[in-house]
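Input (structure):
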């Protein structure tokens, strides 16, 4: 006799004592007792007992299905792997996120570092650092030119392609362009490391590289770089570097014709007027310029 038939007969009181004892030894007997308890309160015990049994079997079947789905190992491992990837990605994005400040041609930008030090970016420049790691790793990466006013007692490093600048509570300017690297200290003390050699720069001193050669530079007394006042100043700087800076400040296309761009220039040009800026460069060097469309051409002065 099948168990289902035994249960129905037991509920109807049709089993012998021996059969009842055998049923009691089954694992599900306690559940059968519950069915008997609730079915005893029904007006039509035989029919309702069968319906109760069917409902019970259906519930048990659904439970088994749900258990199989819940503990399906491939699904569980897939969910766990996805969760780990999510945590790893969140950690990477939050803790390793790089903060970037960048300027375009003819643009400057002022911002503050996490320690409240102020930075001013010159045109066509970029600074990046890890904000979340700032207290443990105070490193900046600079491409271009920037002026720094560091809070007293604060220190960090400015990394460039040509050298590393380390500071402690000072005002200084770093310029790193193609074939040109310059650090000027306006207040405090700055150290510059280039090719494993470290130079200390007190106030009024300059470290300059042109074509990877160290240049001797006279001391200065000004309190800030000229570009903060919308001027670019040069002292014995190759014309090629002056032209490059002119392009950054005015978004110009400049070409030269029969001009020695290695000639040294000393002077200043404004960032506010293109004509005045061009004349400030060409007149002292006794060269001329002409404008053809959007291109400025520098050429030799006619004899």
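Output (sequence):
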């Amino acid at each position: 006799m099948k168990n289902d038939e035994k249960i129905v007969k037991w509920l109807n009181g049709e089993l012998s004592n021996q059969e009842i004892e055998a049923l009691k030894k089954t694992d599900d007997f306690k559940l059968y007792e519950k069915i008997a308890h609730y079915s005893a309160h029904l007006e039509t015990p035989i029919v309702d007992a069968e319906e109760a049994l069917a409902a019970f079997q259906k519930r048990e079947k659904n439970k088994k299905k749900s258990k199989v789905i819940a503990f399906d190992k491939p699904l569980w491992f897939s969910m766990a792997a996805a969760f780990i990837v999510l945590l790893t990605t969140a950690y990477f994005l939050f803790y390793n996120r790089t903060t970037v400040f960048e300027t375009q041609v003819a643009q400057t930008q002022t911002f503050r570092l996490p320690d409240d030090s102020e930075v001013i970016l010159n045109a066509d420049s970029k600074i990046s650092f890890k904000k979340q790691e700032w207290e443990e790793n105070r490193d900046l990466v600079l491409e271009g030119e920037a002026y720094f006013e560091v809070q007293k007692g604060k220190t960090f490093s400015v990394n460039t392609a040509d050298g590393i600048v380390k500071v402690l509570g000072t005002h200084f300017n770093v310029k790193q362009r193609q074939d040109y690297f310059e650090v000027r200290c306006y207040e405090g003390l700055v150290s510059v490391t280039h090719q494993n050699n470290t130079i200390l720069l007190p106030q009024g001193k300059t470290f300059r590289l042109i074509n990877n050669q160290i240049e001797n530079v006279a001391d200065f007394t000004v309190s800030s770089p000229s570009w903060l006042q919308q001027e670019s100043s040069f002292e014995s700087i190759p014309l090629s570097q002056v032209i490059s800076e002119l392009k950054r400040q005015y978004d110009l296309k400049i070409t030269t014709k029969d001009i020695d761009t290695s000639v040294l220039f000393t002077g200043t040009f404004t960032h506010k007027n293109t004509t005045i800026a061009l004349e400030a460069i060409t007149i002292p060097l006794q060269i001329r310029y002409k404008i053809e469309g959007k291109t400025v051409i520098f050429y030799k002065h006619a004899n």
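Notes: The mean pLDDT is 83. Helices lie at 3-11, 17-24, 29-39, 45-70, 73-95, 239-250, 274-285.
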